[in-house]
Design brief:
Elements (H helix, E strand, L loop, with lengths): L6 H14 L4 H7 L2 E6 L9 E5 L18 E3 L5 E3 L7 E7 L6 H15 L4 E7 L7 H9 L5 E4 L3 H10 L4 E5 L4 E6 L1 E5 L5 E6 L4 H7 L2
């Protein structure tokens, strides 16, 4: 039986085909939360999204040893910022994009609240994987809305790819004449003051849960 796909179904299918072409996607799809945001048209890309949110996983179950704690990105002033700049304090790290209507704001809100509530020294970094629309300045302005200790970083495609590969984050940006679709895994990584990855949370993990892990 031949299955005919509607135009929007073809777009969604194309995104998933693209995502599966990434080396680690099959592994990540079972271990990290994946979501996509699909603007209905270029004109209302900021307002209308079909946010496909899968089942929320309570925790990340893959071995932490599979992940390399390492990134070198760019801040709003054009300075290089690496994971080593945060040694001596806890670091919360999340990947997303500023046009995300639901998932990324929830993730950034929980990160910001955890940073305010914790009694230990900690910082947060929000990395945009949308290099075309999100400059480091735009990303930092977005992240700082959720807390003074949360900064936004960006960079070139090569820099973002290197960071994403290290943290086993899969993402895909698919553009057509009328659509701009971004798909990515959306977890929060907790790195201790010595620079070791100690836990990974779903984007919906509460601030209280994150704070408890920093004690």
């Amino acid at each position: 039986m031949k299955i005919l796909l509607k135009p929007i179904e073809k777009i969604v299918f194309a995104v998933f085909v693209g995502a599966f072409s990434l080396g680690a996607y099959s592994y990540l799809a079972h271990s990290q939360h994946v979501h996509s945001d699909m603007p209905m048209s270029a004109d209302n890309a900021h307002a209308l999204h079909a946010d496909n949110i899968g089942a929320v996983q309570p925790s990340f179950v893959s071995p932490l040893s599979d992940i390399i704690v390492g990134f070198e990105l760019v801040d709003r002033h054009g300075n290089l910022v690496s994971n080593e700049d945060f040694l001596g304090e806890y670091l919360l790290l999340g990947f997303g994009f500023t046009h995300c209507p639901n998932v990324c704001p929830m993730m950034a809100f929980n990160m910001g609240k955890a940073l305010r509530d914790t009694e230990v020294k900690a910082k947060g970094v929000f990395v945009s994987i949308d290099t075309e629309r999100d400059t480091p300045t735009i990303t930092d302005e977005y992240a700082s809305r959720f807390g003074d200790d949360l900064v936004g970083l960006g960079g070139s495609i090569a820099q973002i790819n290197a960071a994403a590969n290290n943290f086993k984050v899969s993402y895909a940006v698919t553009k057509t004449q009328n659509n701009y679709i971004v798909q990515h895994t959306s977890n929060v990584f907790l790195i201790d003051p010595a620079g070791n990855l100690v836990d990974i949370f779903a984007f919906s993990a509460t601030a209280e849960t994150i704070v408890q892990a920093m004690r």
